[in-house]
Amino acid sequence: MQALVKGWIASGLTLLAMTGLARLNPYGKPYIGLEALSCYAAFMMKIEKTPLPLILPNPHDPRLTERVTGTDQSGAATAINVPVERPLTLYLNAQEIVTMMTIGDYPEYLALGYLLNQNMLKYDDVVTEVEYHDDLQVVVVRTEHNTNFEQKLKKRTQTSGCAQGTAFGDLMEAVERVVLPGAELRTSWLYQLTHAINTMPSLYLEAGAIHGCVLCKEGTPVCYTEDVGRHNAVDKIAGWIYRHGVDPADKILYTTGRLTSEMVIKTVRMGIPILVSRSGFTAWGVDLARQTGLTLIGRARGKRFIALSGEERIVYDQNPAYVEEESARHKRKGAERDD
Predict the structure, then answer these.
(1) How far is CA 139 from CA 37, 59, 240, in A?
(2) Sheet of 251-255, strands arranged across
(3) What are the backbone dihedrals phi and psi of residue 131, each rounded to the nearest 5 degrees, phi first?
(4) DSSP run (H or E) holding 69
(5) 3 state DSSP class of 206
(6) I need a surface site. Which of 131, 189, 295, 322 has the fewest CB within 10 A?
(7) CB within 8 A of 38, min separation 6: which ones?
(8) 335 assigned to some structural domain
(9) Structural domain contains residue 74
């Protein structure tokens, strides 16, 4: 298992080393590669520079699961690992914003991504500090100037998201100005990434009851986050992209959850042109994807998938006859029906 994880790390670092300065993000700010991180960090975020990390699941982290005993269908004693849920209270400057239930890893990325995806933090806002207090279960994001969170707090929309369920502000405000790049999706990459994600050691395979989101470069995962809610998982990726200036224009976002309107909006807001899920669609999610030009692929399991938007990006370079179906061990809860 350790050898497998090391292999993913090596391949991911090779891909990250290829990242360059060629594009601007959907809000007119430049994306950066590894060689330019130091000069760009001073412009975009006044946070101490760190190397660009590769994030993969750590299913053996003792902080993320608990061992629980019970009885099975025959009355015999049994013990299983279950994911933890911890409250995390987010402050934007001096204003308390929300308390989220989360497994507790990567609180800084989760905080930044939540604020960005709720449109409470703009891409040109200068973040001076992200401070996490483990003993208080509090994370504070501080900005150079006041933000518009008061207006966002006044307008809430109840969503279908698990472990979150509320979006602040006008949902369409986040995507009206975004023009997605003209990327391509090769079916060989799609089959490669879904197989890699389903067989990679993860908290889901260790304990279940968890959602995952994975940012991929072609067919290789480069940032894989998990949480009790799929929106927490995607917010961590948004925070990772923002924190390190990663270019999303040539990336693919994979989620284990449903392709809802909010998942579509968050993907478009991040500037990612392709969204893939092993689960199904909602009608509004499909409609928004078509309006924004997002490639939307669902029910991606084994050799099968369905594209309902942005089909023009797909390059059919892989014969499905040579693609393996999922093994029983790696089937998730959406394998037989939409979850």
Answers:
(1) 24, 24, 16
(2) 220-227, 211-217, 251-255, 274-277, 295-301, 304-309
(3) -120, 125
(4) strand 65-71
(5) helix
(6) 322
(7) 49
(8) no
(9) no
Residue 179 and residue 191 in contact, taking contact as beta carbons nearer than 8 Å: no
Task: Give me the tens of pLDDT residue by residue for the chain, a chain 339 residues long.
Answer: 444 444 443 444 444 443 333 344 444 444 433 333 333 333 333 333 344 568 888 898 999 999 999 999 999 999 999 999 999 999 999 999 999 999 999 999 999 999 998 888 888 889 999 999 999 999 999 999 877 665 666 555 444 444 444 454 555 666 777 889 999 999 999 999 999 999 999 999 888 889 999 999 999 999 999 999 999 999 999 999 999 999 999 999 999 999 999 899 999 999 999 999 999 999 999 999 999 999 999 999 999 999 999 999 999 999 999 998 876 655 655 444 454
216 membership: H or E segment, kind and range? strand 211-217
Using only C-alpha atoms, what is the Rg of the chain? 19
* Domain region containing 141: 86-108+125-174
Statement to judge: residues 37 and 92 lie in one domain: no
Domain boundary among 158, 174, 190: 174
- Structural domains counted in the chain: 2
Residue whose entry in the numeric block shows the structure tokens 């100037």:
145
Say whether both 190 and 235 belong to one domain. Answer: yes
Q: Do β-strands 304-309 and 295-301 pair in parallel, antiparallel, or remain unpaired? A: antiparallel
Tokens of 167: 């979006």
Do 325 and 208 belong together in one domain? yes
Helix, strand, coil percent content, the chain, rounded in steps of 5: 30, 30, 40
What pTM does this model have?
A: 0.79
Q: Is the dihedral of CA 229, 169, 215, 2 positive or negative?
A: negative
We report the CATH number of the domain holding residue 188 as: 3.40.140.10
